[in-house]
Amino acid sequence: QAHAQIEAERQQALVSLRTEFGTMAITLAGRIVGEALDDDARASRVVDRFLADLDSQNAGAAK
Fold first, then answer.
1. Are 21 and 46 in contact (CB under 8 A)?
2. Count of domains observed in the chain
């Protein structure tokens, strides 16, 4: 049962980190492209694409 709780806390921490990292990515991307990413749909696409790229990089590094 302790292992299940540790895994649940680990997953929760990962979700929290992804959210925080996504927010930072939006800010940085806005600075890079020189426009605000205030449009929620656009910001969501940027974050989703960034996280997908990050996941694929992590999968490649795990091999």
1. no
2. 1
18 CB-contact burial (10 Å; exposed 0-12 / middle 13-18 / buried 19+) = middle
Contact at 8 Å (CB) between 22 and 47? yes
| Interval 15-55: pLDDT, tens | 898 888 888 887 787 777 766 666 777 777 777 887 888 88
Cα of 7 vs its chain's centroid, Å? 19
The overall pTM is greater than 0.70: no
Distance CA 41, CA 43 (A): 5
Asked if residue 46 lies in contact with residue 40, where contact means CB atoms within 8 angstroms, the answer is: no
Residue 34 DSSP class: T
Q: Which domain holds residue 15?
A: 2-62
